[in-house]
Every structure is written in C-alpha cells, then in structure tokens.
Amino acid sequence: MKLKPSARGIAAVPRGMRRPRARSVNRPAVPAPMIKRGATMKISDHAYVILDDNVGFVPNVGIVVGERATLIVDTGMGPDNGAIVLEEARKLSDNTDFYLTATHFHPEHDLGATAFPANAKMIRLARSASGNRRARRANDRALPGFRRLSQRCWSKASYRKPDTVFDDEMTLDLGGVHVRLSGVGPAHTRGDTVMYVEEDKVLLTGDVVMPVFPAASAQAANIAQWLRASQKFQAVRAARRRAGARPAHRREDASLRYREYLTAVQTQTRAAKRQGQSVEAAQAAIAPALAQQFSDLAPQGGAAATGRINAAIQAAYREAP
Fold first, then answer.
1. Cα 300 off chain centre by
2. CA–CA separation, 222 and 190 (whole Å)
3. What local confidence, expressed as pLDDT, does residue 131 receive?
4. CA distance 108 to 92
5. Which residues contact 22 (CB under 8 A, 6 or more apart)?
C-alpha cells in the first residue's frame, strides 16, 4: 500500500492503520532545585552565605545580620526555598525585622520572597522592578519544561511587590552594619544589583561574577558597563585583602579573570567590526580562540562555552563604534 503525502509533506496514515507508539524511556527523575538546609557558612563578622554547590537553578544566598534587622539577598525559586532561607536566617539571630532583595529578577533568585512574613520589606532597583512583568512573561515562555519538572518550586510562586524602589544606589542600616545596594547593569540582566557590606568589605554580586563564562544577554548586555563594574569589584577585592580578610569564596577571585576576558571580547570585537566583518564572521573568528584562551572559565563539560562567548561578542559588536 502506498502512503499519500500530506499537505505538510509527511506521509498520511490510512484509517485503520496506527503508527507504532514510541517506546517509553525511563529517564531519571530530575531533583527539584532546593537550597540546602544546615549549610549556612559565615564569611565575615556580619555576613553569611548558603552556596549553590553547583546545582542548577539554585542561587548563592546572602544573609547579612545586624543588631536590629537581617537582610536576605536572593531567596531561591519558590516559597519552599524561601522558607528554607527564612529558617536558616532565624538560626543566626533573634531579629524579627527582615529586608529582602535580589541580585536580579531570574526566578531562582527572586521567587522565594513570598515565604517571608508580611512585615518583611522588599527592596528593588527601579529598572529591575519595572522589568518584572516582562520577566514573568519571558520565564513562562522559556521554562515550560522546567516548570513541569519543578512544580514543587513553581507552585504558588510569584514576585513580591517592592516596598522600596531605588534608582541607582541606596544604603541600608541594619544596626551596627550598613549595606550599600548598587545597580551595576546592564550586564547579566538589565537590572543587576550588588550589595556591599561596608564594615566587613564583603561584596555579594549574584551572577554578574560567576566561576564560569558570564551569561551575557546578547540583546541587553553592555560589555563596557560590565567592565566598569568589574573595576569596582577589583577595588573592593584589594580593600578586603589590605584588611587581611580571606576571600568569601572563589567568585571574588573570578572577578579579575572576568575583567581579562571581557576586555579581550571588547578589543577583538571592535577590531573585527572596524575591518568590516559581520557579527557572525566575528563570532566565527573570535569565539573558538577565546574558548581556548579562557578554558578555565568553561562550564562543566564545556558545552555552553561557545554559546556564552558568542552572546558576549554580539553585545560587544552592537555597542562598538
């Protein structure tokens, strides 16, 4: 029996005949991206972190404890993660006043805030707060499969409305310790925010500095701005070393490597554009060599290295004179 071609170019199956069903594959269950209980680490007199342990969709959480109040930086994905962060914070002090903030709007950093009491105050950078509606729509489009795998984290998850919105910089007094919140984007996102614990000389950077190649937004990132932020991070690093303090974790040392990498991206991309190369030609010429030169920044397995480099090249190409 001949099969007639369908309108879409696929052979139509006559009635009475069934296509064989694809065999089901027993795939291992993907664990929900949960913040680890009991893993809070003290890094200075007032600052603590819960590290992500390289688990996807889990952030590095920052907790800064003052005499009067506690600041939470990045609350995890969904209220179950937020509840873990709240539980860990309550182990550190008897504070009942909480301030919440996020280094950027991505769901693993910002969707756990609703687990905190109603009197907790949410602080957001203005350009990050204004982007939350767009962020929700983008996350809904980009992560439907992940949402199915992580209903525990996404269930009842929502962005918490801000109580305080600041334009570029503000300082928060927690009682005996001050935290300066500064907008440093566009870099990883348009609304990247970092937190500097002034008395401890500790900087919490979110995904603006990672141990691997930066995830630049090809459409929104600004490599020149990212380099300016990197210079500020280096100044903090130098001050912390002069004070005799140990690095909080390896991201502090990664900021110097980031500066070298982003400088190479900017310099080589500008040269390619001056020579009349298209962005695609620049990517083909530059990305493989940068992947080799900065192989120490490759993600585990190295699969995403070229893609991240290409995104940075596209951003640098767009802003190059």
1. 17
2. 9
3. 54
4. 23
5. none
Q: What is the pLDDT of the chain when averaged over all its residues? A: 82
**CA-wise closest residue to 59 among 38, 79, 77, 78:** 77
For helices 305-319 and 250-274, the axis angle rounded to 10 degrees is 60
Tokens 């060599």 -> residue: 289
> Tokens in use for 299?
């993600």
Do 178 and 171 form a contact (C-beta atoms < 8 A)? yes
Distance of alpha carbon 82 from the chain centroid: 17
pLDDT in tens, 82-138: 999 999 999 999 999 999 999 998 888 998 999 999 999 999 999 876 555 555 555
Return the structure tokens found at 230. Answer: 């990197």
In this structure, how many other beta carbons lie within 10 angstroms of the beta carbon of residue 320?
Answer: 18
Q: Which fold has domain 33-208?
A: Metallo-beta-lactamase; Chain A (3.60.15)
Of 3, 54, 311, 37, residue with least CA distance to 186? 311
Instruction: Please report which confidence band the pLDDT of residue 1 belongs to, taking 50, 70 and 90 as the band edges.
Output: very low
Distances (CA, A) of 2 to 12, 16, 102, 119, 276: 10, 14, 61, 71, 54
CB 230 within 8 A of CB 259: yes
The DSSP annotation for 151-212 comes to HHHHTT--PPPPSEEESSEEEEE-SS-EEEEEE--SSSSTT-EEEEETTTTEEE-GGGS-SS
Q: What are phi and psi of 182, to 5 degrees?
A: -135, 135
Domain ranges within the chain, ordered by starting residue? 33-208, 211-321
**How far from chain centre, in Å, is Cα 302?**
19
Mean pLDDT of 308-318: 96
Determine the residue type at 160: R
By mean pLDDT, which of 24-28, 63-67, 225-229, 252-256 is the weakest?
24-28
The pTM (predicted TM-score) of the whole model is 0.81
- Tell me which of 282 and 156 has the higher pLDDT: 282
Q: What backbone torsions phi and psi does residue 91 show, to the nearest 5 degrees?
A: -70, -25
